[in-house]
Amino acid sequence: MKKKKNYIPCAFRETDLALERTPPPSKKRGVFYREAMRGDIRFSALSVSDDAKREGYAAGRTLSLSIPAPFLWSAEEKGAVCDAFRLALQLFFPTPPVRLLVAGLGNRRLTADALGPLTVEAIEASAALPETLYAQFGLAPTTRIAVCVPDVFSKTGIESVRTVEAAVRLFEADAVLAFDALAARDKERLFRVIEITDTGTVPGGGVKRGSLSLSKGSLGIPVIAVGIPTVVRTDGEHFLVSRDMEEYVHSLSSLLAEATNTVFGDAPRLEDSEISAIFREAGA
Amino acid sequence: MKKKKNYIPCAFRETDLALERTPPPSKKRGVFYREAMRGDIRFSALSVSDDAKREGYAAGRTLSLSIPAPFLWSAEEKGAVCDAFRLALQLFFPTPPVRLLVAGLGNRRLTADALGPLTVEAIEASAALPETLYAQFGLAPTTRIAVCVPDVFSKTGIESVRTVEAAVRLFEADAVLAFDALAARDKERLFRVIEITDTGTVPGGGVKRGSLSLSKGSLGIPVIAVGIPTVVRTDGEHFLVSRDMEEYVHSLSSLLAEATNTVFGDAPRLEDSEISAIFREAGA
Amino acid sequence: MKKKKNYIPCAFRETDLALERTPPPSKKRGVFYREAMRGDIRFSALSVSDDAKREGYAAGRTLSLSIPAPFLWSAEEKGAVCDAFRLALQLFFPTPPVRLLVAGLGNRRLTADALGPLTVEAIEASAALPETLYAQFGLAPTTRIAVCVPDVFSKTGIESVRTVEAAVRLFEADAVLAFDALAARDKERLFRVIEITDTGTVPGGGVKRGSLSLSKGSLGIPVIAVGIPTVVRTDGEHFLVSRDMEEYVHSLSSLLAEATNTVFGDAPRLEDSEISAIFREAGA
Amino acid sequence: MKKKKNYIPCAFRETDLALERTPPPSKKRGVFYREAMRGDIRFSALSVSDDAKREGYAAGRTLSLSIPAPFLWSAEEKGAVCDAFRLALQLFFPTPPVRLLVAGLGNRRLTADALGPLTVEAIEASAALPETLYAQFGLAPTTRIAVCVPDVFSKTGIESVRTVEAAVRLFEADAVLAFDALAARDKERLFRVIEITDTGTVPGGGVKRGSLSLSKGSLGIPVIAVGIPTVVRTDGEHFLVSRDMEEYVHSLSSLLAEATNTVFGDAPRLEDSEISAIFREAGA
User: Fold this and answer.
1) What subunits make at least 3 CB pairs under 8 angstroms with B?
2) Contact B126/A151, CB-based, under 8 Å?
3) Hey, is B279 helix, strand or coil?
4) At D279, which helix (H) or strand (E)?
5) Which candidate from D126, D157, D162 shows the least CB-CB separation from C147?
6) How far C146 CA lies from chain D's nearest CA (Å)?
7) Structure ipTM
8) Is the pLDDT of residue C25 over 70?
9) Assuming Cys at both sites, which of B236, C47, C212, D260 could form a disulfide with C282, CB separation 3.0 to 4.6 Å?
10) E strands, chain D, where?
């Protein structure tokens, strides 16, 4: 049963990345997998049915963007990654939500775990502005955003999933977008994958182990989780990180925020029928 | 009706400080006021009955510590202020709570409003540690602390009072201790008063106007609010601040945190029968 | 001698803004002043000759951009302000420097004084990358940037001007670009002016009084200072600030950094012959 | 030549820790090593003569404090570590310097490299206060402190050693105290050793490789370097870190700063003749 290593249950898993958990797509009933390239960026669409889930998968759709190392990007390269992530967000939000809660999971003081809080810090909480102001400035975005940065249990004594759930209720959100740092198995994937999924997320997955899951199942509304691998777990007490992670974390959190502000602001939607098609074909 | 200036309703009040709102104690039925000195520190105890409240007061007890400017304090001076605040906390928590939620109100990125978040950042969330660890290390503090830093509405789109209320429920707290920056009317009082009260607090009082109140009335458990004046309101759009506020905010938030960690850790209680007496005499 | 109030010597001046110190341009020999509008943005070009200087002016050129309040800007409005500042930088750097030192003056922990450090934090220190890397990535920017954030005397015990001077020598810079927060006399100008000048700057002008000046005179290379008013001085111990300054500071520091990265990166130059003309006409 | 692994030249060394480089003391001429315990804390004093240096050692004295994991320390345990570090500082500064430059090396935004900047942030720059103020407050500390946080080359484009050297000249310092994060070979030593040495330090040793050394040799005044291991280097591109490093870094930087403020403030000196003796015996 060598394969088991790949499909260990969530709480003990070596990796948070779908890309590292997925067996070859043809080998498994109920698992659909498609790829497409856009310049240097690979879109990998994975869909797992409820049946397949029972055999070790998380049911739902995952889109993984494999991107160039976030280093000395030209404006064009940065634009291409930003557009790819905008497109990905659009695929998971075919209809813009009316009240979107954006959550930044993780520990902002720890560089390896700061991706979520840093991203959310740069996202505009449009729900904080009175409707009259929008009218006055001639703006009419469909989506109102509230944000939540719950910090980590070891700092607060309160489970971050519970804090996000409470924020969902207070804000009467109809969807959640959560950013978090992830753990990879292969150090070559650190900062090279942006994963977007509707299968739910376990905060603390990247750096410290959580146990509660943030998902549509528990909240009753769509939960889209966006993650980037920042660490490789080693022995439970230590992890492996990239020497340049500080630059990478800042560069990517800023990009994720900018794309999110654009998608849920009043910018026109991007169109890419081929990417939409592989996403649909994968069973989404 | 000259007096009106002093007793305007909360939402429009010029000052958050009880010291600046209090009329001479003898002038008013249901208002009791006592003072005592400890070295350079003046303890002012105010108690307002439910009856007096109807005439413009917040009912409850307030203890104001008038302290030396937080500048070039010797170790003795710092120790004296720290002890005064420890004593004040003990007076408001005669029995240590079992599950205490500590809230840091305000905007951490704005120096004038950062007192609450900075204080709470330095408070140990003892509830984050498993009970077994306490046993293992031979510790047995009575109080378990969880912390909540709700940030401000303009950044999150969610009322900070609601976030604290949700945290109270999640943590099943039996008391709340809230730190916040306040507005004074007189610029000479900036950073010269530590106010502790059980009359409730309106987050955003210092810098931005809030409307919701955090109080025993709404939460059903004791709410002790600790505030220090950091701004003088001028015209609604601007406020007056001290040139040295950055040093003052850091120095005092660190002192408040240290005293709080001590009071709710396993340190012995301070005793000061005279101060306890003026607090009792004031009607507390 | 009523006029004196307006032309008091630097060390005691009420305002750091040229716009608030300038007498009507026609009234004074050696003082040339021109204005032009670009949409909502007013360009005010001032030039003071060495002669006029002796009568109370700082000799040199100052370009003031009067901008809309940095609040709920649409992408177009933000782009217009960014372009205006790019144009201004180009006017002061007609030939790109080869080794540019960018200095962020002020106290990063104090929101009212954080503009310089926050701006510089987002500026790419291109001198940190080996030449071989530029070649490898096909880049060939003319300008190499090093950055210096000297912090303030009250935190370090070392004059920030001296630290910048030392960095100039270490980096062998051929020009300095310095960002700093300024004081205005009129609170309506807070965050509404971007001032670019080659007349030198006195760090600490905005919040705390400095005495040393950073200028071409002392350094022997061009010193271009960029400032935005963030405070109104009142009585030496206090100042007046805007309730929304935290949002404004972040929004504008991010814009200044983005424009600077663009101008000294490999983006094409903006052209605007009319603005160039008023700048020339003013005597520059 | 198996031993070579242990004594590789500085630029390629696996570890920054003297404890991990030292061969058994008796084995080597010119190398003196002594140990003593104080409660749970081991003092290891190493002295290397100029002769031994030529065979692979850095000449000078190093005192290593092996401390308990900085986790759930009681007030007593914290006090013991703080006292041990105070004692260590006193041994390296038998006569208090008159003008001491304290440098915080490393990258403050990267948790694993933030120890130096965080420590220095909490150290009082007593040189920033006018002498008249000290007189007015009845204080007369022997030592005036200025601080320097040079940031890292990859952020500034200027070598941090050069910036510290410039600060030494500007301040006319007669000694330097530098804090930095270090690399260990053995992950069990992370955050378990405080190393104090007069052999000089290579900033960037912990996380990124530096090449310039900060030492008495280059500066002409005593340079005392204090380091704590925060990472294990693996392959040049990655390193291993502790899951709990954020808590550890904050806890220890705060302790180092407090002890430094005490030693160079007006507190009485600690006396411990046995520890002084082992330090002397080691050849110091």
Assistant:
1) A, C, D
2) no
3) helix
4) helix D273-281
5) D157
6) 5
7) 0.90
8) no
9) C47
10) 31-38, 41-48, 60-66, 99-104, 144-148, 175-184, 193-197, 223-233, 238-242
